Amino acid sequence: MFAKIFHGQYELRQMFWKYGVWFIFLMSSVTFGIRFFLVHHLKGMTLSNYFKNVFSINNIDSTIIGLTMTYFIMLFILSFYNLIWICGIWRSSAEYDKSIWLRHLTRLASLLLIFISYKVLL
Fold it and tell me: CA separation (Å) from 43 to 35, 37, 94?
């Protein structure tokens, strides 16, 4: 499936909506939920401030460690998928010959979608 997405072998509508908007929305929602629980456990501190000042080997909070690792793993998976998807949407839109405007609008909207998803998550 990822190879077909990467090579843009699905039609443009399916690539954009099914594998783009809906899947990125789902992954971003899960990542945002993990981030929400992480911020709640940090009680107003930033993540870097927690690990610089509060964290010590004697005082390990496994919940924060687990949420932090899960958050960064989800960000990595989302980044990897976004890279695969943006390559695929570019290739799929290059073969779309019905409308040149829709081809370029899809490319612009896909970049905007990725920008907004990272703006919300970071």
Answer: 13, 10, 48
Find residue 59's DSSP bridge partners.
Answer: 56
Instruction: Give 17's contacts (C-beta < 8 A, 6+ positions apart).
Output: none
Q: What is the mean pLDDT of each run of 10 residues along the chain (122 residues)?
A: 91 93 94 91 82 76 88 94 95 90 93 92 83
CA 27 → CA 9, 15, 75, 95, 119, distances in Å? 22, 16, 9, 27, 14
Question: pTM here?
Answer: 0.85
